[in-house]
Write a structure and sequence with these properties.
Blueprint lengths: L3 H20 L1 H19 L2
Keywords: Membrane, Transmembrane, Transmembrane helix
Length: about 45
């Protein structure tokens, strides 16, 4: 799993996803907030 080719593939995937993350931060924040709300309702019934 530590092959140079594997690391290059991971780096390429990260660079491909980076513009999406910078353009739509809401797409990253929304699932986290949703999970926090669900956890709050399940832990505090």
């Amino acid at each position: 799993m530590t092959d140079p080719e594997h690391i290059e593939l991971l780096a390429q995937q990260l660079t491909d996803r980076r513009p999406l993350l910078t353009l739509s931060p809401a797409a990253v924040v929304a699932p986290v907030v949703f999970l926090l709300v669900v956890a709050a309702f399940t832990l505090i019934p």
